[in-house]
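User: I'm new to structure prediction. If I give you an amino acid sequence, what do you actually give back? Let's try with this one:
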Amino acid sequence: MSGSFHSIRLKSTNLCQRFAREPKDAEIVTAIVALGQGLNLKVVAEGVETESLKDRLISIGCELMQGYFFSRPLPPEDATRLLMHRS
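Assistant: Good question. You get back a string of structure tokens that encode the predicted 3D arrangement of the chain. For your 87 residues, that looks like this:
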């Protein structure tokens, strides 16, 4: 296998959404977060739609998240305003 692991892009949107419905998958998500941290990579959870999922992700050490819980998709200028307001 050639190439660096740092150049591999993994996308796990469905995994995080499934985690919200199937707690048995929590071990998989926990392992992915731990692996990313062990490799000194930023781990972003996508598809976060509920406060309970956000809280579970925080409890396993995932600090970066995106999804409808935080905001619906916005045009760039509205997103900039939202981020400035939340800072």
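You can read the tokens as a compact description of the fold. Here is one thing that stands out. The mean pLDDT is 79.
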